[in-house]
Write a structure and sequence with these properties.
The structure is a homotetramer. By secondary structure, chain A is α+β, with helices and mostly antiparallel strands. Chain A has a single domain, classed as Chorismate synthase, AroC fold. Chain A is about 25% helix and about 20% strand. Chain A has eight helices and 16 strands. In chain A, a hairpin with a 2-residue loop joins strand 5 and strand 6. The two termini of chain A are about 35 Å apart. Chains in contact: A-B, A-C, A-D, B-C, B-D, C-D. The interface between C and D is large, with 98 and 98 residues. Strand 11 of chain C pairs antiparallel with strand 11 of chain D, so a sheet runs across the interface.
């Protein structure tokens, strides 16, 4: 299913080089006045406009305009589905023409072809990170709903390679770019103002639902919350009063903190060995507008998926616990 | 919702000190001959029967018998819902009588009370790990279905504290037990025989759905697959051909490997500071049948949740890609 | 799926001659004190205890006891799944031994065999009306929740054959019973105290969701609300101010009235022509404890399915419209 | 939820006088070549182009163009979500300006205002039949998928008022139109080529799921299949071998026939009494492009909803019964 969420739900569509990417937000309560400027600026963050040139070569090109189709009138939500799309403007399909029969290393070319027997080979089609633009629009709507409940979501890159000093990220990135290589990174996200009681027991635990939505982001390979993997060598007596924001999967009202890791950009100009559709071994060197580190543009996407998830669980909690209150 | 899965689904119920824990497996294809002995032995693993005494003090006591209510005839699945329950035998409610008004540290007592305005304070009620017995039964059914497709799921503890040598786990555990303390641990799981094409694009990516089901296990604080968090300092040129089992969220036919971390057992005999229902600060020392390391009994639960998830995505893939094939 | 409902959901399980029938009610708010006597009396209604002997030959035999497994403590809901089962007591499997290879006319024997390649031939197995006992228990819980909102659900038989005078039903039924035949009937249900705003636009319209749940009852062949099929020859100027309880699929606060029709009992002692598993044509005369008119015991089942549906939409409306209020 | 279907799902969006109406079809298998001309002609049927002028005054005006956003390449489905929209061209908002504060009789104006605290009063907004254009596009895709399985869906108007002779429909309609009144109608639909085994036991019975989708169509007030309500005075011995297409909710391979009734068009020029937003009683006479009989344009919508439902249950059956086969 290309839909996430039970009450506040988001359906995502679009191929990177098709007509457009977009989505439908369903279940957003009526009467919410949307700040379109905020949505625009979130899309700018995703486009990497705030990143130094060289770090994101896309920065110069991409310009995303949201076309609204339904669900709002005078920028106020009607309680009906909010449908929108973003036209794909810079469709350099020809860049991909020559490699259309080659399965790029660490890309979904091979699995899509195997699963569907057909694929849009232009820029990865459905598997492209281009699709995350729709997540950011839906996420911005979710953030504005959460703001009414004084809940905020903030993510940032905390590590690239071995480096944790943000002032030195640019040097590392420039160096790798010259080498035509890429690097991994870790994003940390903090949810402030959490209400007590968000998250359902057993399968819909707050951390479980969050890990599901975060791990659905392209290139994300791991999720942890609170002290995460470092707990392996901690003792109960040391950490029992550090909940990380949830107990039994339900928010306890304290800030919820999680981290996720992104693999290095698979598209690199250094020559790599791979196979084509006939299984023949070939070398490929991928040039073009590719980030050195995917994690750099991930924070706004991470915030978006977290916000969509919290909005859904917040509304679900209202209905599930209403009679008891 | 206490249900997980879309085609092969599992509904979980039960409080630790209520009448029973159990579940309903829906969507299991008809005609599958169940090996009841395998289910019994999986429950034994969860009960810690194979662990040295002292490591799991429950080992002596717990004995789980599955009562089948529907969905099978002569041990063969009928295609209808398979309902079952396991009686709660050793219900020492009195152990909890004296602390019924106290919120135990790192337990869900506080959040359940806040969310529902009522809770079964006996042994944590719904939030108790007791509930995982039902997951193991459902998981064993899923494993037997997957076996027909030559898919197997195997998990084991790979680290406790700083220790990765399994031969020395017992010493560490005995030492902590004497101190009345607890420790964290990491479980690794490998899925062999994966078919190509399992997992759906975008939100229902194989790793996303797996992290959701694994993070829903009590005390689990992190999930990673393939090279996971270690990718932060890897370069694209180093790791591009290590998929970890999925590309674009869809299985590529290679083994899928993931790891998850469990926090130290919150119930320890060392005195801890906490609050009671009136917010009054109190000291509490929790004695009784508590493991030193929750991770020790986790592998069979991890396997179960992974098997339930793979079974669901396997059947979903059959329906979603049928026409193309 | 054997589950109905999104927030207040009900999972149904059991074969008529297996160990038990039962279900799991999930999403019922915590803190609801259940009246167990009401549940018992609803089950009595389903068993036909209030019907004159001869009309329902089952009356003497069936005695349903509910075994509660989870979700309640001291009869108060905990907010966790409420699981229960009812043992199948009078399992006269031998009655069916001799016709195990025959597809009874108008029964699901043939379709189950074709769909699953296996079936529990004892009393229809999963397809038996026996399963409705679980619906009645879940429905009674839903009714008690609705009562807190001053919503009540009442159904009764309004027609049998051509007869609409309830005083003369008994004669018709006795006559048919002597002939070894059966007859159809119509049940009418009125929902009092509806809140304004229940039901969602487009697919989850109140009448759509109600028809779905009512048409899921065995032998139900039609559903209509308000003036229903009689509207075919009405003019807008005549009926525009008769909403039937919903406008645009959303309750307008007036009573909601619907009717449904049940086909004649398929099991009759008059000899009928059918086929066996080998496609061979055979005659069959079905004797045993079968009602002359299925509609007679249907009202409590109709009320139950309506209550489950209203409870779900009521809770959904709370979460969907919360911010606007 | 504005989404219907579990495997083959359809999400519907749009207000009648907003930017557009449209939808997202998810779960359609990859590799299906779409006949765009067929989709166009289905939309023409909905627009009433084939109806005599006077019967449908919209005929002259409405012209629907489908804009495709994703999920297809060279008219072939990719297995990803198929998103599309249809611009709202003739938005005579001013027609509604003067009655924006009045709740039109038998319309959803009142319930939407009450539920959401806000509504798009232009042409009924979300509650307008305009939304059904998106259903027809999704339905046409479903029909083309079903055609690959040799399943077809055909509906037609069989009664208007007391008239069942189609040759005399026009006279009745012209007469009513002159009077400024409207009339109800009945549509019958036959599904040919049904495979055996479609439909799930208990809640997802074929007739239950069909009634749900058909009753979700605006102005539909009743659904029946097979002999429907006429069964009230039939005897088991008479009708036992007339299944109507399903036994135990599962298709038996014979044609499935159902009927549904549509109320008279609520918008009539005859003056009617109603209330405004302040509860003040007012008279209203609704002029403009309104059909005399809603049922006339309903067949293609009925076919669409039936096709979407059958496609979903067909794919579900493939996954649920796969292992048994």
């Amino acid at each position: 299913m290309n839909t996430i969420g039970r009450i506040f739900s988001f359906t995502d569509f679009g191929e990177s080089h098709g007509v457009a990417v977009g989505g439908v937000v369903d279940g957003c309560p009526a009467g919410l006045k949307l700040d379109m400027e905020q949505i625009r600026s979130e899309l700018q963050r995703r486009a990497g406009k705030d990143l130094p040139y060289g770090v994101s070569m896309r920065a110069k090109t991409e310009e995303d305009q949201v076309c609204w189709l339904s669900g709002i009138k005078d920028d106020i939500t009607l309680g009906s589905p909010i449908a929108f799309f973003i036209k794909n403007q810079s469709a350099h399909a020809e860049d991909y023409e020559k490699i259309k029969n080659i399965f790029r290393p660490a890309h979904a070319d091979f699995t899509y072809q195997a699963k569907y027997g057909i694929r849009d080979w232009r820029g990865g089609g459905r598997a492209s990170a281009r699709e995350t633009a729709a997540r950011v629009v839906a996420g911005s709507i979710a953030k504005q709903l959460l703001a009414k409940y004084n809940i905020s979501v903030n993510a940032k890159v905390i590590q690239i390679g071995d480096e944790i000093d943000r002032n030195r990220f640019a040097d590392i990135l420039k160096d790798l770019q010259e080498k035509g290589d890429s690097i991994g990174g870790i994003v940390e996200c903090v949810i402030h103002g959490m209400k007590i009681g968000i998250g359902e027991p057993i399968f819909d635990k707050l951390p479980a639902r969050l890990s599901y939505s975060i791990m659905s982001i392209n290139a994300c390979k791991g999720f942890e919350y609170g002290s995460g993997f470092s707990l392996v060598n901690k003792r109960g007596s040391e950490i029992n009063n550090m909940s990380g924001g949830a107990l039994g999967g339900i928010s306890d009202g304290t800030d919820f903190t999680f981290r996720c890791v992104f693999k290095p950009t698979p598209s690199i100009s250094i020559a790599q060995r791979t196979i084509d559709e006939n299984g023949k071994s070939v070398d490929i060197s991928i040039r073009g507008r590719h980030d050195v580190c995917l994690a750099l543009r991930a924070p706004v996407i991470v915030e978006s998926m977290a916000a969509i998830t919290i909005a859904d669980l917040l509304l679900e909690n209202i209905s599930r616990s209403c009679y008891a209150k």
